[in-house]
Write a structure and sequence with these properties.
alpha/beta, 3 domains, five-stranded mixed beta sheet, 8 helices, Conserved hypothetical protein from pyrococcus furiosus pfu- 392566-001, ParB domain
């Protein structure tokens, strides 16, 4: 296994060049990202590849766009921000790393355990904006609660979405201003079945 992390550096982030074309990814989480940057600051570095003195973005394209939006809205953004330089022999390898490493599906939080963890740590769920987090709700069946779990399951709707359908669903929820699935479904039912 090769360690591809070359170094951590400060860069003039506005000079970082795109490695992927515009529109290749759907920026469905823009408002959550903007709120996070305003509340917590720049907490996740860019990942870049250097070629002939130019730095190309491997990870952070969406953050670059949102930072430019924040400046256009009058917010102050530091000129230099942290980046991690990733070693790649050429553009082809840098793009392969971009696609294969930085665009994998992340492991979701188990909702019940995340909520319990936040409560134990005395952190308000609204403070971390749980609607923007990759969360999966799983019922853990125990023999004592099996009958109760069956009743709860009878009152639930479940479906599996493709990546494309998931992106559309998240965009739709953001547009109508409802981030909980149940609220968004009922809002859509009201709109299309008066």
């Amino acid at each position: 296994m090769k360690d591809r992390i070359k170094q951590s550096i400060k860069l003039d982030w506005q000079k970082i060049k795109a490695l992927q074309p515009d529109g290749i990814k759907l920026p469905y989480n823009t408002q959550h990202l903007k709120k996070s940057l305003l509340k917590y600051g720049f907490s996740l570095p860019f990942y870049v590849w250097e070629s002939e003195g130019e730095y190309y973005c491997i990870d952070g394209h969406h953050r670059l766009d949102v930072l430019n939006e924040l400046i256009a809205e009058g917010h102050k953004v530091p000129k230099e921000l942290n980046a991690v330089e990733i070693e790649a022999k050429d553009r082809k390898e840098a793009i392969s790393i971009l696609v294969s490493v930085f665009n994998q599906k992340s492991n979701p939080f188990a909702e019940e355990y995340l909520i319990e963890f936040l409560e134990v740590e005395n952190i308000d769920i609204q403070e971390v904006n749980i609607e923007s987090v990759n969360v999966v709700s799983e019922n853990i069946e125990q023999e004592d609660h099996k009958e109760e779990t069956i009743k709860e399951s009878a009152n639930s709707i479940s479906c599996t979405l493709t990546d494309e359908e998931s992106e559309i669903w998240l965009t739709t929820k953001e547009k109508i201003g409802k981030m909980k699935d149940k609220e968004a479904i009922f809002e859509l039912i009201k709109r299309f079945n008066p």
